[in-house]
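Predict both folds.
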Amino acid sequence: MHNSGRPKKIRMVSKAPNTKQFSPRGTRGRPGYNQLKVEELEAIRLSDHMGLKQADAAKLMGISQQTFSRVLRNARKCLAEALVLGHIIKVDGGVFKIEKWA
């Protein structure tokens, strides 16, 4: 089967994540999990943690501002859902390359 979609552009990430999983405490049973892609974590780091404007963060990641905005929106949705529902957050996957710049 042929994938007719456009290939994803590689997103530049400054370093591999230090932590691969966050788990809630006080949750009975086995909580579900949400997957946060490495480039989504980088978008959160650049925008929310470092306070960069989206256009500047997008340049660092080697993507358009529109793509950065979409990656950031997906990351925030993933985090919000995990926090509200008490899910584990697993940091893994995505389309990225580690490029030390920040």
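Second protein follows, with its predicted structure tokens after the sequence.
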Amino acid sequence: MNRSFALGAVQLIVLLACVLSLPAFSQNPPAAESVRSHFASINQKVLDMAKDFPEDEYRYRLKPEMRTFGEVIIHIASGNFYAAQAGRGEKVSWTELDPKNYKTKTAIVLLLKKSIQEADTTLKNLPDSSFAQTVDPWLDVTEHSAEHYGLLVAYYRANGLIPPASRPKK
């Protein structure tokens, strides 16, 4: 066999392998699916914590100058409402909900659920194609909630508790 023919055959096989593998690389989830999935995932983790954390510890602060556990949940809900409004194209600025209006665990959990529902409704109503132009505000708010999720883990640990997502699966 001619050496240049063999090299040409090898190059052709490598090229063919590359071309045939392209569909595998393009099977990443579309941006819309990814944004919706990550947003739902972090909100579910925070909601699980809000429901699980003892009500008598909702006023617990890691340090005096920090938010209480309940105030962190309210802050996350504020972000969800912001995302819902911005996602609908409304001119909006971040409006921090006043923790004084949410005095009990039940009220705070209901607020968080409402914020998640409003944001999810907005997300579901956006056409998938809109995520090709921008993933704002969803990426920012998801990252923001994830940062506060980490803080909430510290509240759990400081109280000798195991966060729901860290517990052994049954």
